[in-house]
């Protein structure tokens, strides 16, 4: 049976390569690709809506562009010239507008700049096949750029040939757009593949712009973070997730993301908030962060909307927990633990006084029931989220490019943790009546995430929607990994001990090599592999290192979000994995795009070599290389079949 199947496969392969010559040529082509240097991978995590900083790090490839400038020009350019050239590559249009105001002879500047960019293009293109470079070329200038970056041995006077092309570009007035095209090509070729390890959404003001940028990125994968998953739940119409998304936006003064950029009408919520909390100052619901762009009346309205959606969230979560007993989260139903007359709440046998006791929409006898006005707001918001085309497109990108984990080139990528006990044993978690642990837990949760969007059976679809909220906030969720989400306590209780969110033992065991090797083995990897992890900020200011377990584990959340930077001491870690090895990059805070263009200030970054490859890695050392080697083996079998007469050539 197997021999019959193998022969049928060879017959299908013969349709693609109908002659010995064609099969042989393909083997030669694939073998040459195996010997090219490994492409550069770029790892970024926990972006949290910080579009400008993210965009800049994407443009500079975490220092990869400057590294190429150094490689090409060495000491032949001054540091100032290198900075100017790097800024031009990051922001070509904006930088040229500034230069044109000062430069007296733009033609000379164009000529010098074009030659410099062409030299960098030659270097960054040398790692790829001509076919791959050709696909990356901008359509308008594909032929000309290919001529300029390709060695032409048949041309005797190469200098005159290239000079002629450059002079023509300038004389016909196309130098500026050509420089833009070359700069974008360099950005494109410096990074071969991008990994986003979760938490694109919440806190910062530009998650939608980040998603727009990722929609056009040439090669990427995304490991969902808990903040991404709650937005996915909202887009699927899960009401507790919708309330959570609104509360997070209100908390950081970002409701305009929903209203202005996703077109979700905030008027019903604002009307409810003014009606119910008109005389309530809602002082516990101040904007976290600057909030300086709000005037007094806007700030007051935001606080009232913030409180209104927070109470709705607690009600909806209480209903969900009661409905899904298997989630085991009864302890997070807190509204029925309040003594509304005394203004206190009893938690774990201890009574605490509430900082705010004005709850006009809560019926103490049935605290999780929505009022008719609240119900109307929730229904209108649900319809708006489901009908928002832009949001649905962004979530489709997360579904198509995303997953809960990724195994890629001997690295295991995930956002949070593998839930375990104090001894490092994987916890068995009940998901809708069955227990799962380790990789199986990740796999079943991802299956339900996709059911939330694509299941035909209504009951399974509802299970999928509810599991998105579970992944967001459950102590047993691999994307959350804490004993509780203390949202209620942080708003309403003064006592710091109630605010603590104890982490899963996984985080205390990150330096235990046996346990980390067990995780790698669980996902099909050997002890020489790495775990790349996001989610929990590394406190560099307290001396914490992102390198754990002797370099086996790399925790690269260092505080991209401005909300974290005072705590972490830096503005995020990124990771570069190129043909020479793995390097961590620690970033200082990004000021602004305008300052980067005007003053040529890059994000100051420090590179830390994590692991040097024993030899320069090639495509043959990668997952893609393994697939190419399998293809070569299949083609060699096809050649044997041709030469033995089992399959006849078709000419």
TrEMBL record:
Its EC number is 3.1.3.11. GO terms for molecular function: fructose 1,6-bisphosphate 1-phosphatase activity. Its cofactor is Mn(2+). The keyword Endoplasmic reticulum does not apply. It comes from the Bacteria. The keyword Manganese applies. It catalyses: beta-D-fructose 1,6-bisphosphate + H2O = beta-D-fructose 6-phosphate + phosphate. It holds the Pfam family FBPase_2. InterPro entries: FBPtase_class3 (IPR009164), Metallo-depent_PP-like (IPR029052). GO terms for biological process: gluconeogenesis. Pathway: Carbohydrate biosynthesis; gluconeogenesis. Keywords: Carbohydrate metabolism, Hydrolase, Manganese. Belongs to the FBPase class 3 family. This is Fructose-1,6-bisphosphatase class 3. It comes from Candidatus Scatomonas pullistercoris. The lineage of its organism: Bacteria, Bacillati, Bacillota, Clostridia, Lachnospirales.
